[in-house]
Amino acid sequence: MEGKVESLWEEVRELTLGTTVDRLQSPPTPLQFLRDFVSQNKPCIISNAIPHWPALSLWSTPSYLSTALSSSLVSLHLTPDGQADALVPHPSQSSLCFVSAHVQPTLFPQALDLIRRPPNHLVAYLQQQNDCFRTEYSELKSDCDAHIPWASEALGCLPEAVNLWIGNHLSQTSFHKDHYENLYAVVSGEKHFLLLPPTDVHRMYIKEYPAARYSYSQENGEFRLEFEEPERYVPWSSVDPCPARASLKQESLKFPLYFNGPKPFEVTVKAGEVLYLPSMWFHHVRQSPGDGGCTIAVNYWYDMQFDIKYAYFNFLQSLPCRSIDDQTIPEGDFEDDSGPHASSNHLNSRFSGDESATNNVEIHKDRDNVQVHERTFVLDSSMFV
Hints:
Belongs to the JARID1 histone demethylase family. With 385 residues, the protein is of the alpha+beta class.
């Protein structure tokens, strides 16, 4: 089976994806976007996509943002190292766990200052994701479009969520996938993506890890891990695509399908550009600050079609793969595939933060039910992948 799966990786690249991500010099027509990219589940970068946005000139000035949001209480995500929604060593076992950031309501000017001038052992990131641009940052709504017109026409709907991201070079996002069509617009700085198509799911070594959250004490400036009760497991990619040079060989032995397979697509999205990231593509993200000392982006999540493409993906990831079933990873690092938490067939929503938080939109998804309700936001974190 492994050889057939590896042939699929190569054939997808030869027949559809090529070796680089397409770059368009101007926005496509809705028909072109639907025909050439959405229907083929193929990413692209659109240059000159948002030149009319006031945000491009205004948001690079920190004083403008601090004034516009002077009284806004925002959800600030705090970690000791910039790794949130990521795998970290379990404090009492020789294994790993999945950890989310400490989320702290903070006045925006204070949050921005922590991002631009990070203290030691504290990394701040504004990344709430629960449609936060239209709630926590509504004062900025006139600075950019409410939706991407050509994408909305092609997809036949308006975005389900619009999010604002403000961070610095210390924050990274580990490999994951979203069940949304994602239009990701960079306003200041640069975003650096590693991309892999859904067909490469076995190369992600998805396992289930006990879920925890950072708790931060302002009194002593220390973080501690708090595990969820009752115990909950989160399916997550085991691969770190950028290990330290000293551990590269060891990581290559642990995850041969990733490190010995086709290289991921590497793209840098600059200010004024938009990345179309198709649903279910795995992506790892780093960032470089702009002139204002931070990286700022707005992304639009459009609901994906749960059609035959989704059925194909579920079938593919259910297939066993010898390099995963063989315990190439040291015993104790992961649950055995035959264990009670081995299934990786979970629908993913990349909303993080307080899962019981109240917001303007509720988005609840499972394999058999997709609903959107007004006013209350509730998420079952077991959906995260």
